[in-house]
């Protein structure tokens, strides 16, 4: 019993020294998130574009869905007679936050001219502009033998042939939120092979689909910043280097529709991006 008493005293002392620490977590009004990446597969002749919207959550909360009053995509270069230059997206199910054109749209609508995304959410008006960006197809997709850190690493090797007539940018989608932003600075007009090691665990027999998308410089910069921030291994209480700013702007309080770049209201902006890109896909079975 005499031997137990010192241990009991030590335990009581440790518990008596505990302090409750209150951590002030970031608090801000919910911000609109717009996922408007429209990917066009050249093997298809018509498309039903999809846009997803949601709201930023509290620090430890889940991402809440939200709804729009209206949303449309307009081709500013097509004739307006009969309203043929725009499409109106409709919510696929009440409260889903997913908007889609119920009717297939021909490729020409997206390929030619300037495209304008416009939507209204809780009395605020948002606009974005973009152009269709082509891509280069993949010449080859194979599983390599190299490792990055340990023997469980899986190497995915992609080969493409770049168009040397212009500066090109690409975004690679390896599935499950793993992306790579790529520019042709060092392989302009040449065939080029590059490797990627997915962070997720892949096992023999798993099927992996890899997609290459075209990108302009602005979309490349946006995705490159997103990739950098998601692979920085920051602590949950560390502040990101910068909030990725997309090309969708709140134009509610602007009086000049030709200058909707938020110069006069830098803190008023949604999250997300509007891009219309060509994509090519290949699938591989992990060995």
Write the layout of secondary structure elements.
Elements: H1 4-16, E1 32-40, E2 46-47, E3 50-55, E4 70-75, E5 86-88, E6 90-91, E7 98-100, E8 105-106, H2 107-111, E9 114-121, E10 124-133, E11 138-144, E12 155-161, E13 169-173, E14 179-183, E15 191-196, E16 207-215, H3 217-230, E17 248-250, E18 271-285
Parallel strand pairs: 1-18, 10-18
Antiparallel strand pairs: 1-3, 2-8, 3-7, 4-5, 4-9, 6-7, 9-10, 10-17, 11-12, 12-15, 13-14, 13-16, 16-18
Please, could you describe this protein's structure?
The chain has 287 residues and is mostly beta strands. It has a domain at 32-134 and 243-278. It contains 3 helices and 18 strands. The strands form 3 sheets. Strands 1, 3, 4, 5, 6, 7, 9, 10, 13, 14, 16, 17 and 18 form a 13-stranded mixed beta sheet that branches. It has a 3-stranded antiparallel beta sheet with strand order 11-12-15, with no helix packed on it. Strand 9 (114-121) and strand 10 (124-133) form a beta hairpin. The termini are far apart. The model is unreliable at 234-239 (pLDDT under 50).
